[in-house]
C-alpha cells in the first residue's frame, strides 16, 4: 500500500508539473511545434537516467523508484520509461526485441493516435 501511495502522489506531482510547464511554454513560445512536449519528454529521459544511474542498487532506490521514477516521471512523461526500457534491451543484447519495441512504440503510437482521431471524427 505504501508503494501505491508513493506512485499516486508522484504521478499527481508529475502530471501537474507537465501541465504547468506546457502552459508556460505555450504562452512564451508559440511556434506551432510541440516544443513543450519535446522538452518534457527529453528532460524526463535525462532525469530517469540520472535517478537510475545514481540510485539503482542502493537502499534509497526502494522509495525513489515508486515515487520519482514511476510516479513523478510517469506522470510527467512516459517517454522516460520507454527510453530506459529501450536502453535495457540494448544493454542486454536483445537487439531484435529493441527494434520491434522501437518500431511498435513509435509507429504503433502514431497509427493508433491517427486511428483515435478518425474514430472521434465520426
The whole-number mean of residue pLDDT values reads 90
Number of helices: 5
Q: What number of structural domains do the residues give?
A: 2
How widely separated are the two ends? 42 Å
| Count of β-strands | 0
Secondary structural class: mainly alpha
Q: Give the topology string: H per helix, E per strand.
A: HHHHH
Overall body shape: globular
Strand content: under 5%
Q: Characteristics of this structure?
A:
globular, mainly alpha, 2 domains, 122 residues
Characterise the protein shown here.
The protein is an all-alpha fold and 122 residues long. The protein has two domains: 77 residues, no CATH class; 31 residues. It starts with a helix and ends with a helix. The mean pLDDT is 90.
Please write out the topology.
Elements: H1 2-28, H2 35-55, H3 61-76, H4 79-91, H5 95-121
Helix pairs in contact: 1-2, 1-3, 2-3, 2-4, 4-5
In short:
This protein is mainly α and 122 residues long. Helices cover 85% and strands 0% of the residues.
Amino acid at each position: 500500500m505504501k508503494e501505491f501511495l508513493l506512485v499516486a502522489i508522484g504521478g499527481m506531482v508529475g502530471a501537474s508539473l507537465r501541465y504547468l510547464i506546457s502552459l508556460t511554454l505555450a504562452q512564451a513560445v508559440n511556434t506551432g511545434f510541440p516544443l513543450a512536449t519535446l522538452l518534457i519528454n527529453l528532460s524526463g529521459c535525462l532525469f530517469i537516467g540520472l535517478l537510475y544511474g545514481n540510485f539503482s542498487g542502493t537502499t534509497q532506490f526502494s522509495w525513489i523508484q515508486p515515487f520519482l521514477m514511476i510516479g513523478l516521471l510517469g506522470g510527467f512523461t512516459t517517454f522516460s520509461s520507454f527510453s530506459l526500457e529501450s536502453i535495457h534491451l540494448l544493454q542486454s543484447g536483445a537487439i531484435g526485441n529493441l527494434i520491434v519495441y522501437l518500431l511498435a512504440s513509435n509507429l504503433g503510437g502514431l497509427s493508433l493516435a491517427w486511428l483515435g482521431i478518425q474514430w472521434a471524427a465520426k
